[in-house]
Amino acid sequence: DDKRLCSWNALMIAALADAGAVLGRADYLDAACSAARFVLDELRGEDGALLRTWKDGKGRLNAYLEDHAFLVEALLTLYESTFEERWFQAARETAEAMIERFGDPERGGFFTTSSDHEELIARRKDFGDHPIPSGNSSAALGLLRLSALTGESRYEDQAVAVLRLFARAAVQHPDSFGHLLRGLDFHLSPTREVALVAPGVGDGSDGLDALAAVVRSRLRPHLVLAGGPEGSDAPELMRDRRAVEGRAAAYVCENFACRAPLTEPAELSATLG
């Protein structure tokens, strides 16, 4: 079986990006970026819609919910690991397509198949995180993270609708809803947004890498991270952020209300701690 699946590649992209950033492994990050480029370039239909599988030089079949949801999470992780704006933009575009083509505005949550999929007896909704996250669980966590980076409440509203739909089942069978519970934990816990701003486009010697290393020095499940040079417009968390006297600065925010910028890694560590 030598076909390539969109959803499985997305899971691998997220793992490689996260490990590459934390461990300082450029080869992991290169592999994640290469796989992301392949998915975004090759797994597309003529109308630009995401496709499910690729084999013998051609993509096939309409992508399912899990393909979109896993890719949103993967691209956000890749953005947080590289600070390359294109990955954030691709994540947002994928999320918009997911909401439009899979969302259920009446009962909440997301259907497994898209609105333009071949006609079935019924459109079902997948749930239960075994052995991998369900499309709905992944969509919820990805949209919550996207909301935290952009300040867009409609992404959060879509995610909360998923949590409401499956909350009772998750309480009764928590071992079957690990990823959904991650989303619920992210939603209910105080979430911090960290924006790292460099004085210009540099090679890391401007202090941005040192600040990023602090953020990545431990597991922080209730935090989203953005970074880039002054003047960055995306994600919205980066807008109107400035470096401090030619030095990279870290803005630690909650609901886009930010503390005074920090320039010393030790100060950032103490604040996050």
Average pLDDT level: 94
Structural class, from helix and strand content? Answer: alpha+beta
Summarize the helix and strand pattern as letters: EHHEEHHHHHEHEEEH
Parts with pLDDT < 50 across at least 5 consecutive residues: none
Overall number of strands? 7
Query: Helical proportion?
Result: 40-55%
Q: What key phrases describe this protein's structure?
A:
273 residues; alpha+beta; four-stranded mixed β-sheet; three-stranded antiparallel β-sheet; 12% strand; globular
Quick overview:
The protein is an alpha+beta fold. It contains 9 helices and 7 strands.
Structural overview:
- The protein has 273 residues and is α+β, with helices and mostly antiparallel strands.
- It is 49% helix and 12% strand.
- The chain is built from 9 helices and 7 strands.
- The strands form 2 sheets. It has a 4-stranded mixed β-sheet with strand order 5-4-6-7, sandwiched between helices. Strands 1-2-3 form a 3-stranded antiparallel β-sheet.
- Strand 6 and strand 7 form a beta hairpin.
- Helix 2 runs antiparallel to helix 3 and helix 5 runs antiparallel to helix 6.
- It is globular, with a radius of gyration of 19 Å.
- The termini are far apart.
- 42% of the residues are buried.
- The model has no long low-confidence stretch (mean pLDDT 94).
